[in-house]
Amino acid sequence: MRKTELVIFDLDGVLVHTEKYHYLTWSRLAEENGWKYDEAIADKVKGTSRLESLNTLLALNNLQEKYSQSEKEAFCEAKNRHYLSLLSFLGPDSATPGTLDILNFLRENQYKIAMASSSRNAQYIVEKLGIADYFSLILDGNEGFPSKPAPDIFLVCAKKSGVMPESCLVIEDSPAGIAAAKAAGMRFFYYSAFSETEECFSDLSIIKQNV
Ligand code: BG6
Ligand code: MG
Questions:
Q1: How do strand 168-172 and strand 6-9 relate by DSSP bridges?
Q2: Between vectors from CA 178 to CA 52 and to CA 161, what angle results, nearest 5°?
Q3: Is the CB of 4 under 6 A from ligand 1?
């Protein structure tokens, strides 16, 4: 039997280069409110849910007690409005190079394909990219799972797909996502759609060599 039965894709930073826009929108919110936000903080929040990201950002500014839940929700909504306004360009050409190649390869070779994203915008983005039909299951930030690095989203993905965790391969770009895959007992492949500071693979087809 093959070692991989189910390939679970993360979305932001893997199938599409949206992390840049998460970074820009958190940056602006932080600037407007006098909070510190930099690349190191961005790396810590990457892959975690919107509210978890805000909580981490506030904690790193020693402001965890300053705001009420409704103020935090208002910050998250403002951040998301700005984020969505920057995504108007999204279309089939915005997917990471090699996306259709790897998805077609996996489908033709009868691998199961799923997505597990912390984003509450995942369905919208996947529709814009025109790749929704490739996934037998999409779990996103609307499901209410504890945020990555908790393994829950990956474990439920495997269970609903009828596959054991050890037969899953997770494709992730964030430290939180990699930690979640490890905690789920799954194999993982680090892939970053874009990085200004590290060398990265430019084409998602690289995964063919790792399933
Ligand atoms: C993750 C991103 O996929 O989704 C995070 O890596 C982001 O950067 C999180 O904060 C939540 O996204 P959204 O779209 O629900 O604000
Ligand atoms: Mg990601």
A1: parallel
A2: 95
A3: no
Amino acid at 189: F
Q: Which atom of ligand 1 is nearest to the CA of 176?
A: 6
Q: Centre a 10 Å sphere on the Cβ of residue 142 and count the other Cβ atoms it contains.
A: 12
**Is residue 173 classed exposed, middle or buried when 0-12, 13-18 and 19+ CB atoms within 10 A define those classes?**
buried
Ligand 1 centroid distance, CA of 2 (Å) = 32
Find out whether the beta carbon of 17 lies less than 6 Å from any atom of ligand 1.
Answer: no
16-51: pLDDT as tens digits: 999 999 999 999 999 999 999 999 999 999 999 999
Residue 21 contacts by C-beta under 8 Å, 6 or more apart in sequence? 83, 86, 87
CA of 79 to the centre of ligand 2 (A): 18
